[in-house]
Amino acid sequence: MLSANPPAGENSSAHGARHVAIIMDGNGRWAKRQGKMRVFGHKAGAKAVRRVVSYAANHGIEALTLYAFSSENWNRPAQEVSALMELFVWALDSEVKSLHRHNVRLRIIGDTSRFNARLQERIHKAETLTGNNTGLTLNIAANYGGRWDIIQGVKRLATQVQEGLLRPDQITEEDLSNLVCMNELAPVDLVIRTGGEHRISNFLLWQIAYAELWFTDVLWPDFDEQHFEEALNAFATRERRFGGTTPGSEPV
Hints:
6 strands; alpha/beta; disordered N terminus; Undecaprenyl pyrophosphate synthetase; 13% strand
């Protein structure tokens, strides 16, 4: 799945992005253009996942988060959902050993309780196998929704209040930040969306508050290392002020 790791000292990030998140959109349209069923597009999309994971692991990115299955995707036709679940199981079985060999830590973020026991077991085994790896952290968002993520954090805060550990007036942004998914990782720097749409689709709503956004018309199965590099180069040219002003631009 991954190419050989670069020599020590050559894997530092030149673009400055530590955490990249991708909304992988366009599999269905790609398949339709080929005259194929949607599941054919999802299988082609899995190859694009291999490309971006390899690129990220070898170019100094600390964390890569991929939006694989949203909490709204259950509303798709049952046949497509079933095929996606089987593809997920297949990917876990076929790719995890390669990820482990290349020091990648795999994590699944989202409400996995809705998945069947077989898939939950595969997820647990994959996360356990790669849990101590120190290279790229690969987060797969599966049955994930940004609103769900915030709500599950709020529920945990409410429990702390109920137990008398915290007063409502003491709750801070940091408290909630510590309870949403990926709280121990670097903040998301860059969000990439393929497929030509210009929306966030309930993805990482809390975590991308100050992320840069990059949209492309390229459909996900066609997204390759060159497109990834283009997005990272665009990110490197942006001035990130995090709600402040550019130094030196304040009125005298």
